[in-house]
Every structure is written in structure tokens, then in C-alpha cells.
Amino acid sequence: MTLITKIIRNTVLLQMLLCGAFTIAQNTSTPEDIHQSVQTQTDLIFDELVKIRRDFHMHPEVSGEEKRTSAQIAAYLRDLGLEVKTGVGGYGVVGILDTGRPGKKIAWRADIDAMPSSEPDVVDFASKNEGVRHICGHDIHTTVGMGIANVLASQKEKLTGTIYFVFQPKEEINEGASAMIADGLFDLIQPDEIYGLHVSPYPVGTIATKAANVFNHFTVVEITYKASNNQDAIVDFTKSLMANAQTYGPDHKFWDPNSVFSLKLGVTHPNTIFKDYDALMHELNVKQTNDTLKMRILLNTSSKERLDAFLPMIKNKIETSAYAKDLLSVSYNLMPGLPVMETPINDAALTKASLKSITNVYGPQSVISLYGVPPFQFSDDFAYFQKEVPGVYYFLGVSNMEKGIAGMPHTPNFEADEEAIRTGVNYFSSMIIERL
Ligand SMILES: [Zn+2]
Ligand SMILES: [Zn+2]
């Protein structure tokens, strides 16, 4: 998960865990034989997977330097009998599990990089690489990907089609997916569907997702006027214009971080306040040079459509105001080459079908449906794969309030309940089998 600006606080997490919004899922289903075999194999390799995860955790590597991680993955996949390609878009690894029988081709993606962090690690198997830590949970993602490869390889004789495992580097800097694609990923593999996950603060035993976008869309709006003697009036006008343009006023519960996971207002409620919004974060930044008066503000919207509509609306309001003659431009400007962050957009039909296949085997309590997107500044470059191949991005619950584990990525005390590895391997091995 790429974080552009951190705005949330740990209190959100704490509140969420204390509010009892979720319960830990129990498996009450009666699985078909193959899904029973999936669970048996997952249980068999679980301790080994935990060891693998802890090894990655102790040896984290930042974006673009995932040499050791990549080598471990490649060796593991080769041992399983998969065809393995390395060095795809940097330290990317691709494993191919070809059943030898015709059928659908499905890709599973896991990101593998860690992050710079000098805060002390909170677990016994602390990072041995000073200043680098797995606080975004990609060690869990990598391990789940390897576990699914193991489980599906163990069921190969019962399967049709081909499963691809895409281990992607450089996610945290938003470069790895594009780098793998530019390096010919989709010449190497031709998936019909692609899936992936990210750890999240939902309870262990659950996964969560929604059709369409799973993150908000955000960018920086930049309004440039000619330098003017009338600066104060122009600034006041623009401030008021922007304040009126946003969906919720300053006193609305939208701005309370605890609302995100509240049962009545939060993202799990069908009528959540996080469904349709334009929100402006932080203060308007004003900068005057000899020639120009520039104002910048971070815009968060609940969809790309709203983001696209916001800029022309603002431009039109200025052009029909007393300050029309002073206006030079209205534009998006997040960072060079990245005016608008791409975010994962889930295919509606695949979201529905894949969730159904999971609830059929593991019960309805295994899935949390999401109806909105919080105004955080997170994204994931899995979006770039989804632009090429239809797919679904899931959140894997890793929190456990009984154990005091609050799995919020990018926080210094990030921790994950390792039972989530079992959940991820079981649910998504079964899901892929059903999709093949
Ligand atoms: Zn991440
Ligand atoms: Zn991250």
C-alpha cells in the first residue's frame, strides 16, 4: 500500500477494535472434497509458512532492493515444481503452475517490498536491517502467495488451466507494477483474471472488498492567478469557494476519524457517509511570486468520476466570478508524472463471483462487504495490473483485539495476527480453484 500523506491516527483503530463492529469468523460450512484438501494442506504447511514470514520480517528490503526476498521466493516456487522467471521489472518473480489441461488462466499478485522505518519493531522476530521494516505487511502478502502456490501445486492433478504467481517489487514507491508490465509481464503470462490482497485492520478470519474502487481518489488541486494587488480578496474568495464545494461542512461527522469504522456511518454500512463525497484536506496553501499567486489543496473524492468533475466545476465558478480576469489556470498537481494516483478498481462481476465462491466454502461471516472508501491517502499500484486484466483487490483482516493486535499498515506498531496467513491461503486457494 502506498501512502502519500498519513492523516489517520491510531485512535481510529482502537475505537474500531473496541466498538465490537466485527466478530471473528468461524468456519461453519461443509466444504467439497477439494476444499477440504485445501484446508488440510494449508494446516500441514502453516508452521513452515509462519517461519517463512518471520524470516522475511527479519530481513526486510526496501523498494528496488528486494534481492534476498526475490531469491527466497524463486527457490521456493522451483521446489514446488513451478516454472520460474526472475528479474521481471527489477526483482519481480513470476511462477507458472501449468496443470497441462486446458482451462482458464488466473494470476495471483503479491507485493514483496518493505519500508524505511527507524521505530523499534514490536515483535520478537524484529528486523535485522536497521532502518527497514515490514510495516505494510508485505511479508504476509509474500507468504500467503507462496502458500497458495504450495496448496494449488498439491492439488494440481485435480485442476485445469494455469495459475500465475506474480511477486511484485517496488510497490511502496508505486513503480513495481508498471516496471513488470514494461518488462513484458503480459508477454510472459496471459491471465484472464488477476487477484491480490492487502493486510488491513479488519478482524483476522475475514476478508473485505467492494466492487469498483477500494480506495478513494486524491490529488492536489492547484489554482494559479496572476499576481495582484488584490491578493487578500482573491485568497478569501478561493477559500470560500473551496469550502462550499465540498460535500460535508466542518462540523460533520465525516471529519471524525472514528466514523470510518462506525457501524452506522462507516464503510461497512450500505448507506455510509463515505460513499459519495468531495473532501478537501488540510489548509489551503498560498504562495505568491513576482508573477503569480498560487493556491494548492489536497482533494479527496470517493470516485474517479467525482475527481474528474471537480476541476471543471471550480474553474467554471472562478471564470464566472469577479476574479475571472486574474485566473491563469486550474490543474491537478500531485507529483511530476503522477497528476492523479491510480487506484485499484475491482471488476463488478468478478467481485461478486469470487466472494460467492469464498462464502460458499467458508461461510458468509468470512466476507465483509464494503460500501464506501475512507478519505485516507492510501493506494496500491495493483491498479496498473487491473488496467490490463480484470481483477479484484481484497483486504485481508489481520487484527485481533483479544491478542491486542491492531493491524493498521504504516503505523510504527503495525502487527498482524499470523492466523491471517491461514485465512488467506485457504480462502484464496479455494477461490482460485472455483474460478479455474
Ligand atoms: Zn502495502
Ligand atoms: Zn505500504
Automatic annotation (TrEMBL):
The Mn(2+) ion enhances activity. InterPro entries: Amidohydrolase, Peptidase_M20. Residues 1-25 form the signal peptide. The keyword Ribonucleoprotein does not apply. Keywords: Hydrolase, Manganese, Metal-binding, Signal. GO terms for molecular function: hydrolase activity; metal ion binding. Mn(2+) binds at residues 136, 138, 172, 198, 410. This is Amidohydrolase.
